[in-house]
Amino acid sequence: MSSFSRSAQQWATFARSWFLIDARMQPPGKIATMCSVRLQGKHKPIYHALSDCGDHVVVINTKHIAFSGNKWEQKVYSSHTGFPGGFKQVTAAQLHLKDPKAIVRLAVYGMLPRNLHRRTMMQRLHIFPEDELPDDIRANLTEELPQPREIPRKLSEYTQEEMDAFPRLWIPPEDYKMK
Amino acid sequence: TPAEPDFTLNYCSLALPVVKPPQGTLVSKGLQPCSESTIEGQIIEIPAGPQPPNPTAQCPIYRWNLQHKYNYTDVLLLSQFIRSDGGMLPRRITGLCLEEHRKIAICVQMAHRAGLLPDHKPKLPEGHVPKRPKPQLNRYLTRWSIDSVKPIYKRGLKWCKKRMDVGHPALRSNVQYGVKPLHIKH
After folding, report:
1. Are B173 and B100 in contact (CB under 8 A)?
2. Domain coverage including residue A106
3. What is the pTM of this model?
4. Which of A55, A83, A124, B115 could serve as a FRET partner for B7 with CA atoms 20 to 30 Å apart?
């Protein structure tokens, strides 16, 4: 902004901000793309790969992540311990029960560029399985990002007025017993 | 002038007038414990309302012009075609045409698996304790039943990739409100 002093403008441009993303009922892939864009600094017009302009990202509620389709049972995460016979394949459901932060962490890791900056960017990513945050991270947060997926409402969350306002599409016959 | 919309569908916003059918609905109370079996029924009177936009059609979805406009999230629509334990009502009673009945059944399945119909679960017998507590995993647009799906251990290369199914091909004819196409395989 032209009304700011030169030093204030410079500080605002190059400061490292802290973003918050709530992953409740969200697909982990979409969360991971948002995280990777901000960890690299690609959301800034001053981006350059060498200029270390990435921000911090805090992801909360990763325990309540939602996969589309049957990915909980079909998606397989593989790893090898390095020893013979050490090839391990685990489904997403099993991995999530063992470690609720792993799915988001692996998704973001795979979306970052494959260079030496990747490890530092992963250090700037903070994942928490539930709502609780340490006080120092909570004090640093600057902006909350909107959730990528609209959460659909359950039938129990509709008010009686909304349910009455919705028209009845068909008339049941008088002698039919509704269970 | 059309009436003000009192509600909106999740999939699209339509301005539909309020209607209540003129006849009553038969709702049966539980069987009373006595020597002779009598079933008590209560006829609930629902006041009449304005007519659907296309009253000459056979199927209720076509009568209200909702053919390609609903999704698994439109629970208010889907709940009109299900029993209290979550099963679908027969087609000869609801009057749906075959394709729409199947599409609604698919959407109801997806809504159950997404947990959008929490009060329409089947009644478990009294004193039933589940052996293993099931993991509560959030999901949506699940096509296949949870126990029937096997993990894909080898996904293959790009030209022969084994993709994971999302949504259902029967809903491919739905109206697309955005520019992005609907991906069935992820």
Report:
1. no
2. 11-165
3. 0.83
4. B115
